[in-house]
Amino acid sequence: MTNRLVSIITLTYNRRNILGKSIKSALEQTYTNFELLILDDGSDDGTSEFMQTFSDSRISYKYLNHSGNVAALRNKGMKLAKGEYIAFLDSDDLWSPNKLEVQVNCLEDNPETGITFCGTKRWDSYGNIKENHFKHLEYDSVPQNLFNDFIVNKFIVVPSACLFRKSVLNQSGYSNENLITGDTEFISRILINELAIVDKDAYVEMTQNGDNMTNYIQKDSYHEYQYMLDYNFERNLISQPIYTKMSARMSYLLAKQLLVENKLKESRKVFGKTIRMNKLNYKAWFYYLKSYL
User: pTM (2 decimals)?
Assistant: First the structure.
């Protein structure tokens, strides 16, 4: 079994009440050669005092001035990382105990692969676990190019499900700090150049607590996804039909969110944009007309 160092990067902000569970899921990993870098984005809920209760030498805690810029925080973590492999563990997520072991072995056994993803589950605020395999669990555990499936949203990724070689950053670059999170665009750039593997033998559990999951796309998420589409379309990495289809889909989801928020005028404008891209989107027509009622 290999003993390469893994750098786990955890970002947190005012999550003292749940951060401990994420840390515990890291410390209970069957693969033990890791460093846990916890970057605190200026919490004022006692997180700093809480972190003093941990004595494990693998934990490194850094308190930073609040910025709210997830991309910048991830970049700081990746630049601090000493490991050959990097993993993200968001402070409201949990890992299965074998997560690192499975994924490290996956990359070790497949040196041509740059990144690996595990399965995903989610559990609500009442503690009820709901399996959420997403569509990516249909994939076989072999190296493959997942870029196209990622672009069309067939292959859905959460940051805590990833493990990648730090060396891929030499070609893909770091997260775009002009974006709020940059996660989708960052992973797309890795998938442009790297083969990936989906391994079903490990998983990440996500908490559905309102600030990390939603039934509709949030405005920032829409702009980031659209930025990713623009970036790849301009470089001829995706076709015009795919670009138009996915732009229309993202626009539709954003319009629905605005409608839910009762922002009727703004919602109509975005539904109009959706319809111009796809005149046969009857649901968009329905909600467009409904916004006048």
Answer: 0.88
